[in-house]
Amino acid sequence: MENTKIKKKQKINWIAYLFIAPAMFFFCMYILYPILFVSTHSVYKWSTLSKMEFVGLANYFSLLKDSTFWTTIKNSAVWILVTVPIQACLGFILAYIIEERLGRKKRNGKGISKMVFRTIFFIPVVTSVTVVAIVWSKIFQPYQGILGYYLNQWFNMSPTINVLGNAKVALFGVMLANIWEWTGWSMIMYVGGLSQISDDIKEAARIDGATVWQELRYVYLPSLASVHKSLLMLGVIGSLQTYALVGVMTNGGPNHATEMPGTYIFLKGFTQNQMGYACTISVAILLVALILTFIQVRFLGSGDFMKKGD
Amino acid sequence: MANSNQKSGSRPQMGQAGWILLLIIATVMTLLPLIFTLSLSFRTQNSIYDPRLFVTELTNGNYIKAMKDNPTIPYNFLASFVISTVSTVATVLFASMAVFGFSRENVKGKLLMYNMIMCALMVPISALVIPITQLNSRFGLLDNYFGLIFPYIALNIPYAVTILQGFMSGIPKELEEAAIIDGCSTPGLYVRIVLPLLKSGIVVVSIWTFLTCWNEFFLALCTMTKATTKTLPLIAQQYKGVYNSQPGVLFAILIIITIPMIIFYSIVQKQFVKGMTSGAVKG
Q: Which residues of chain A are within 8 Å of residue B195 when distances are taken between CB atoms?
């Protein structure tokens, strides 16, 4: 840390602070202050700032006994465990085929097909999230949606199948929409990662007669470690802040079965006007995020950041 | 690469055709919901409830009605566009400045500041909606573009800093030293040397930030209540209720909202992929 041995006393680089200042200002104003705000306001019972009643840790005790809150935690966990690996796998497969398999045959204009596929698979990402939610609600709708109809036509399943209305599977319906929307992002991240693997390594594996499977197992997947990590991080944070898909598709229902932290905070804070309690949920979610970050940094390393000691 | 063709032929495996088939299946899965939307948007009141993917009874009346009934849609486009663009430009500017500042020497506490911003990477927006809404109402920023722009900048800076940091550390120190010897001031160094070298990273950060802002829903829901300041994700949700009995019009509106983004991405995708493959993601 101490750079004293390199040079003698140097004066502080004030101009650098000016460069950092705007970012720090926005950080303090809209991230640090809000975190302090939810923490300090979670020990009050209030609906407007002018009428606050100190209740100590009462909100926290109610939170621990609140089964819906635990449902949101469980749903977030399921969401992470299901969507992150599936999106990563599908995204990787797509990126792998596009980058490593399409160009193999020498052909003029091979770049065009790559470009077309990359663009097509990214379209869901640029589609507005509420549009995605409405369209998938329609797909799942009994009698009117294409899913029930074609399952009935081809596999003779009941046309009354109501994915979003069934507490057991509704969350999976919403997650399917999420996977559809975000696989393209995983793909583009893997496209970026694949381009960083040197051709020499790929060529060496090929010359050694590695099978496709061995190539994937020993060359591609280990070289893409930092992409896996970034996707995991984005997936975790994404699941904790999921709001629009759930809010529009099921609004947390049926009977809170698809409630996520975001929708629950909105329900308590803005619909039921229990701002204090909503702040308590926010603090709990921040703690969960903190714990998950810690676990990731501890077991997977910090990726490219947090390790710069000099 | 020249003889890779023979090589792949010598191994028992899926040929080119197999891979292309997989891609085509994936393409169908990807486009199916959008084709369904397109199909719904051209249906008449009679055929709209038909669950089949394609029907023959079609009309363009939904689009005409959507445009005639909702003269505010251009304002919603404007709101989404201005908010996303300003947030993106400011995020890129402030994040690249910060990354440059962090790379300077003799900056006390820079590691602390850097790590604080990195921790913010994991802060979910849903947990901050209440205080940000309180801030906005105190500053009179509800129904104001800046009520969303300021928080969006703050929430996107951590990710932008992460990506740009990777590019910044790739800039050789000698280059900077040479510029300093040539009499380049610190701000000059940032503008003339560092910014151009961060270009690929900036493209990636810009597109990601733009997409996140364009799509953000939760905070927008709590901030925008006037018909003219609402962003596009909000009006999609709003029309879901309004056109409950005329789904055709709703789906026409969804298509109207979606098309510009697809065009936008088609235009920038080359730059975006170029940025991604030039080291935005460490391999």
A: none
Q: Which domain holds residue A156?
A: 67-300
Q: What is the CATH number of the domain that holds A133?
A: 1.10.3720.10
Highest mean pLDDT range out of A40-44, A213-217, B64-68, B238-242?
A40-44
The topology under which CATH files domain B71-243+254-280 is MetI-like fold (1.10.3720)
Is the CB of A27 inside 8 Å of chain B's CB atoms?
A: yes
Q: Is the pLDDT of residue B250 over 50?
A: yes
Domain limits, chain B: 14-59, 71-243+254-280
**Does A15 reside within a domain?**
no
- Tell me if A238 is assigned to some domain: yes
Residue A45 within any structural domain of the chain: no
* ipTM for this prediction: 0.85
Q: What is the pTM of this model?
A: 0.86
Residue B181 pLDDT grade (very low, low, confident, very high; cuts 50, 70, 90): confident
What pLDDT score does A73 carry?
A: 93
The structure tokens listed for A70 are 């635990």
In angstroms, the CA B260 to CA A245 distance is: 21
Question: Count of domains in chain A?
Answer: 1
What confidence score (pLDDT) does residue A103 get?
64
pLDDT at position A292, please?
87
Distance CA A231, CA A99 (A): 19
The CA distance from A13 to B85, in Å, is 32
Please give, one letter per residue, the 3-state secondary structure of B136-164. Answer: HHHCCCCCCHHHHHHHHHHHHHHHHHHHH
Q: Residue A203 CB: number of other CB atoms within 10 A?
A: 12
Tokens of residue A17, six digits: 């602070």
Residues A220-250 pLDDT 10s? 888 888 888 888 888 888 888 888 899 999 9
Tell me how close the Cα of A148 comes to any Cα of chain B, in angstroms: 8
A146·B52 Cβ contact <8 A: yes
**What is the DSSP annotation of A133-148?**
HHHHHHHHSTTTSHHH
Nearest 5°: phi and psi at A52? Answer: -120, 140
Residue contact A24–B113, C-beta within 8 A: yes
Q: Please indicate, yes or no, if residue A32 is contained in any of the structural domains.
A: no
